[in-house]
Amino acid sequence: MENALLVGLSRQMVLERQMDVVSNNLANVNTSGFKSDQSLFEEYLSSRAHEDNFVPSDRRVSFVQDRGTWRDYAPGSLQQTSNPLDVAIDGAGFLAVQTAGGERYTRDGNLQMNNLGQLVTHSGDPVLGNSGPIVFQPTDHDINISPDGTVTVLEGASHTDSIRGKLRMVSFADAQALLKQGDNYYAATGEGAAQADAKSTLRQGYVEKSNVNAVTEMSRMIEVTRAYTTLSNILSQESDLHRNAIEKLADVPA
Q1: Is 61 strand, coil or helix?
Q2: How far is CA 142 from CA 134, 156, 165, 237, in A?
Q3: CA distances from 139 to 30, 32, 63, 126 (A)
Q4: Which of its termini does the chain have fewer beta carbons within 10 Å around, N or C?
Q5: Which residues contact 170 (CB under 8 A, 6 or more apart)?
Q6: Is 15 strand, coil or helix?
Q7: pLDDT one-digit tens code per residue, 61-116
Q8: Each residue of 102-135: b (16+ CB within 10 Å) or e?
Q9: Cα distance between residue 24 and residue 224, in whole Å
Q10: Which residues of 135-178 form beta strands (DSSP E)?
Q11: To 5 degrees, how large is the angle CA 62–CA 67–CA 71?
């Protein structure tokens, strides 16, 4: 196959994966605490011929290669909910969550209370404090979450001020190494363990919105679609040229 077709095919494969990234960003434009992904590209140079007896050496061909994605951890805007269980993280920290698959981390502070009195995520997984899950008593009211994550309540009719725990906030030396696990969770890898984060603070009654810019992502989707369509037309024309050339070469005069 000629180089033009190979280069075009490599570009089409990259555009397809780029469309997957853009589509996922758009699907999570309303997901609290979601961080958008961006594609990484690089030039891949390869020689058309693999023999070493060409003088001069064969010219290398430039292909398109996507190296993967990187995550944009820019903060999203804050939305006031007036729900005392909702928290927005101001800083680079994450909330620690206990799931069936082990400890996970999230920026989604849209929290609630389950029927056991535990503070849980929207997926129903317990949010961890420094001493385990945060558990409320049936008579607790006037829940307050301070900027450092300390959870206090007024207990019963006596209005006694009681501490129910302190939300555990963590950060990572290289947040790009975190793996997305679904449900807006991240998992730590061997490249860096979670570290206690004393710099980040919490804002009660707010949630951090997704940092996806819907207009920008829609523009990228249109650009990718147009580029793929244009490239398909070019490859079709190239294929027609090859077919016509073969037909003419095969048309030998009698």
Answers
A1: strand
A2: 15, 10, 15, 70
A3: 34, 30, 66, 20
A4: C
A5: 93, 94, 96, 105, 194, 195, 196, 197
A6: helix
A7: 666 666 678 899 999 999 999 899 999 999 999 999 999 999 999 999 999 999 99
A8: eebbbbbbbbeeeeeebbbbeeebbbbbeeebbb
A9: 14
A10: 140-145, 150-155, 160-166, 169-171
A11: 140
219: closest CA among 18, 69, 28, 64?
Answer: 18
CA distance 201 to 98: 21
Helix axes 214-250, 3-27, angle to 10 degrees: 160
Q: Which DSSP symbol is given to 147? A: T
Instruction: Find the radius of gyration of the CA atoms of the chain.
Output: 27
Rounded Cα distance, 124 and 168, in Å = 17
| Beta bridge partner(s), residue 187 | 179
Size of the chain in residues: 254
Q: Which amino acid is at 46?
A: S
